[in-house]
């Protein structure tokens, strides 16, 4: 007896000691709850910046839910990822609760009340490109702060003060910039000086920025404190609103005190659709992304993508033809639903999207000049960043948020320390004139006072058999829709893990210009030659998308997909 029990006890003690060592070391490295295959059991945050992902997971560990973590991450990104994270921009949230409730929040910017249809045209009626892209006139009324207040009010569990605090700390104490950020800020030095002659925290006057330099943002910390103390009034009224209006006066911008006070985000019914037995939950207009995503999925569903294989010539050709038709619809039919009757029901009919593919010919590219938007019959009533979060109870949040271009309008509000968006360029400034992403539009997306500009942002959540399956989204302007689409089919059709699906090389077509963009090595050279022989104009370009996603495995664990195209990090626990 003695002989057998003693070694057993020793073994038990050793096991306990080992387990304690593993737990302590895994806590220190943020690996608690990680299984052997790199998956996590309790929850996960995937975002564009390591500091922001860690902020989110700390909130989850404190007992916060996915929305608490999302609010904390949104504010943290406004500090540590100023090229797209923001309080001076806007975005969209798609939410799915553990019990299956779904909802979306539109906190997209609005045109100021003084905006007008032709405000970016010269006397000959031609677009003055820079006017909608840089400086004070390029900004819409910011929506992010109201969005976070609304999201937290409806679904948050921790106090508002608790979820805003990490961002205040990061702004007041500073954070170490990444190598990529140092290079970006140095590259923009002159432009930032031009637009902010009184200085801004983003400009280093002493020497060029280098990796690991501390970026301290005192003014932003004060602004965040006001938001923490007063909620939306801390931003849309009082000292911060005064600073925004003073900026507008300095640079002849349009945003007034009334515009700020009147801004409200909108809860909207999610768009849903089925694809090979999976339910897609995504963003309705003011984003075009959700409708276009479902249209693309419906267009390709009848075809055997899995048999053809990932990025084979047949797969790419089919998808390019679907994208051509869907983006033509986008240009004509999509705009702010509060101003324009978007024919949503018609666009989302599977027969409609099938019929759009009927005139596609395997032997030759369909010229975009021969593709118009489809006719929708019957009357109807009616540098961005993405982060994905799942909490311990399996509530999920998918948020894409933006200033539009990298560092937005390049104007940092003096005294308040945050960058303003250049989202006005997402309107169609003149019918048929391309915006910075080459997208064209018309009446549906024309500028009007207080109207929201059309977006391509596609935060999405996928369900399988009534259970959470994937949380996904990306930046990338017009390529957002196709990157989200390709990430979803990479998992569903091509059986990739989340990380592989995110990292996989992507391609893109958007009707106009009539060109197929490929990331380097997205296709083999023989397949490229086959497509060229059919009349496709193929161009190799830089990175497409920067997807941050989470996959729930059939064992109930979470796989992260953090895009290697950026500094993105998946942190689980
Ligand atoms: O809302 C939109 O569609 C654009 N403003 C998104 C811009 C974007 O993704 C820039 N990042 N790469």
Automatic annotation (TrEMBL):
It catalyses: an S-substituted glutathione + H2O = an S-substituted L-cysteinylglycine + L-glutamate; an N-terminal (5-L-glutamyl)-[peptide] + an alpha-amino acid = 5-L-glutamyl amino acid + an N-terminal L-alpha-aminoacyl-[peptide]; glutathione + H2O = L-cysteinylglycine + L-glutamate. One of its GO terms (biological process) is glutathione biosynthetic process. Coiled coil: none annotated. Pfam families: G_glu_transpept. InterPro entries: GGT_bact, GGT_lsub, GGT_peptidase, GGT_ssub_C, Ntn_hydrolases_N. L-glutamate binds at residues 108, 402-404, 426, 455-456, 477. It comes from the Bacteria. The active site is at 384 (nucleophile). GO terms for molecular function: glutathione hydrolase activity; leukotriene C4 gamma-glutamyl transferase activity. Cleaved by autocatalysis into a large and a small subunit. Keywords: Acyltransferase, Glutathione biosynthesis, Hydrolase, Transferase, Zymogen. Pathway: Sulfur metabolism; glutathione metabolism. Its EC number is 2.3.2.2, 3.4.19.13. NCBIfam families: g_glut_trans (TIGR00066). Belongs to the gamma-glutamyltransferase family. This enzyme consists of two polypeptide chains, which are synthesized in precursor form from a single polypeptide. This is Glutathione hydrolase proenzyme. It comes from Pedobacter frigidisoli.
